[in-house]
Amino acid sequence: MLYNRVSYFIDLETRMTLKSYLALITLSTITLIVLAVGVVLGYSLQKSYLDSISQRGLELGRVIAHNEKIIQAVELSNQGKPNDIQDYIEMLRAQTDASYIVVVNKNSIRLSHPEPEKVGKRFVGDDIYQALNQGKDYTKVAVGTLGQAIRNSVTIRNDDQIIGAISIGYLSQPTSELIFKHLQEAGLLVGFVYFLGIIIAGFLILKLKRTFLSLEPEEIVQKFKEHELILDSIRDGIVAIDHEQNITAINSMAIEWLTMNVLNAPQVVGKPLSEQSQSLSHFALEAQGQITQNRFNLGKLEFIATLYPIKIQKGDIGYVIVFFPDHGEKSLEQELTATKNYADLLRAKTHEYANHLNVLSGMLQAEHYDDAIEFLQQESDGDQVALGRIIKTIENSAVAGLIFAKHNKAKDLKVDMLIESDCQLGRYPSKTNEALVTLVGNLIDNALLAAWSNRLLTSPFVKLYISDRNAHIMIQIEDSGAGVDEKLENRILDFGVSSKHNTEQNGIGLYLVKKVVDQYHGSLDWERSEVNTTVFSIYLDKRALIK
């Protein structure tokens, strides 16, 4: 039975629509608020009314207590002499809304009462004694001969002497009826507010329903997931921007082309488009709300971008930008040439190593073992010297392995790679190692290519210095290349900008370096030295790297 009830409520919850949820939540909230306001209002109204009755009773009692006729009658009663103020008191009571007015002498003997047969008898209740004995005016809800009432006791004085007291009462039943009447009026007001709140909530729910296109929350989430999967499955780059050119949506292909996957979508969304592509940002400025198509370059690849305007709030215009690489005949020819050149290079290297193996094989077959050992030693001495120097100075295994690999690459390119003897780099967390590998690897690659490209004018070399002895990590790469073109000096760190003139996709290395330097709040600079070499210098704060 319990299982069936639980299943019923689970099924009920799954069947509830957005409209039902909103109606239930809104109705519950309004009900709780109205109930709370009603309770507070009722309590405040009742307390205010009772306080008003008490204050009115005390004031009436003080007026009667100063009446000379009352004072004289009480004095006579205290002296045992006859007096008659019953009719006079009843006349006063009839002129007020008091339920009863009872006058007593200092012995609490009644001198007046709504029921004449109780005159001359002792007052019922102990609240009158605070007025008789202590001279204090006092209010209390108590039960007397006429029933429960709000009783106000006031002292009667003559020449500052307490001679009696007056009790003015308001019976609970008539008082409750009056309070209930006021509460009914307040209840009608609260009910009207409650009804009005339900009507307003109903209009809001209908408005939200139209705004959400009658979709349920689960359906909305599903739609977002579907749209995200569809966008990421499209092989074109897609970027949506608002009227301020802030990115509002972007697919994975656009992330790959614009940032080389250095950043992810959450890091790009909400940021200006100009941070990722100045060209696309200019296209959006020039579009003026029209469908336009333009060409731009990312590295050596040419892209075609189409801008589709979208109307957003207040008449502003955003854009959906779709872009893709223009794989024309020239581009395919360049790719084929680059592949052919790479294949030729591999054949040359294979031929070179085959010659070395043939020489070694001939020496071994001729039993010239000493000559074979000497031949192998010559081949490995250079690598052993470089490896020994790296191991002694660079404790960071990730960076050390990278530098040794680049040393072998420099050897293949016939470029001398010099590693300063006073280098030093300690161990760091894996995330820091990734950043250092990105910095050192891209700078060395650029330096090797620059030195190799200028080999006909000067002997190619690359010099590396890296140190973390102080509060900063310093990385310095010097090469014998021709330097940075003056036309590109201000844009050399932008994505896709390169001084290289070959068929490869360039303009990425220094862009990645700049991203890492900015991430760790470092500095990057380059200069042309007096001996016509190019020096790139990077400074990173070690505290930022180990956080």
TrEMBL record:
<protein>
    <recommendedName>
        <fullName>histidine kinase</fullName>
        <ecNumber>2.7.13.3</ecNumber>
    </recommendedName>
</protein>
<dbReference type="Pfam" id="PF02518">
    <property type="entry name" value="HATPase_c"/>
</dbReference>
<keyword id="KW-0472">Membrane</keyword>
<dbReference type="InterPro" id="IPR005467">
    <property type="entry name" value="His_kinase_dom"/>
</dbReference>
<dbReference type="Pfam" id="PF17203">
    <property type="entry name" value="sCache_3_2"/>
</dbReference>
<dbReference type="InterPro" id="IPR016120">
    <property type="entry name" value="Sig_transdc_His_kin_SpoOB"/>
</dbReference>
<feature type="transmembrane region" description="Helical">
    <location>
        <begin position="21"/>
        <end position="45"/>
    </location>
</feature>
<dbReference type="InterPro" id="IPR036890">
    <property type="entry name" value="HATPase_C_sf"/>
</dbReference>
<keyword id="KW-1133">Transmembrane helix</keyword>
<dbReference type="GO" id="GO:0016301">
    <property type="term" value="F:kinase activity"/>
</dbReference>
<dbReference type="InterPro" id="IPR003594">
    <property type="entry name" value="HATPase_dom"/>
</dbReference>
<dbReference type="InterPro" id="IPR035965">
    <property type="entry name" value="PAS-like_dom_sf"/>
</dbReference>
<keyword id="KW-0902">Two-component regulatory system</keyword>
<keyword id="KW-0418">Kinase</keyword>
<keyword id="KW-1003">Cell membrane</keyword>
<keyword id="KW-0547">Nucleotide-binding</keyword>
<feature type="transmembrane region" description="Helical">
    <location>
        <begin position="186"/>
        <end position="206"/>
    </location>
</feature>
<dbReference type="InterPro" id="IPR004358">
    <property type="entry name" value="Sig_transdc_His_kin-like_C"/>
</dbReference>
<feature type="domain" description="Histidine kinase">
    <location>
        <begin position="436"/>
        <end position="544"/>
    </location>
</feature>
<keyword id="KW-0808">Transferase</keyword>
<dbReference type="InterPro" id="IPR033463">
    <property type="entry name" value="sCache_3"/>
</dbReference>
<keyword id="KW-0067">ATP-binding</keyword>
<dbReference type="InterPro" id="IPR029151">
    <property type="entry name" value="Sensor-like_sf"/>
</dbReference>
<keyword id="KW-0812">Transmembrane</keyword>
<keyword id="KW-0597">Phosphoprotein</keyword>
